């Protein structure tokens, strides 16, 4: 069964919810760090994301964790190659977090 691009993106996002920010202990999706998942014609995936700060010492760890989380989708040929594109615009702030992440981290608005 061939999935639509939208279904594939949803599967990728579900897998990315398993990637936990090592400093904050909340997944990168609920933290609002994932801006987009782009799929090309061959279903190669580019995860467009940011980090909570430019000097994040764990950037490499998070990128590796993303690639590991998506390995199963690659094995089942749901996606091809995985790239991670770290961007700084728009700048991340606490308002991008989900309600769950705000509750988990005790963030009050």
From TrEMBL:
Segments forming domain MIP18 family-like: 9-77
Organism (species): Paenalkalicoccus suaedae
Coiled-coil spans in chain: none
Taxonomic superkingdom: Bacteria
The protein's name: Metal-sulfur cluster assembly factor
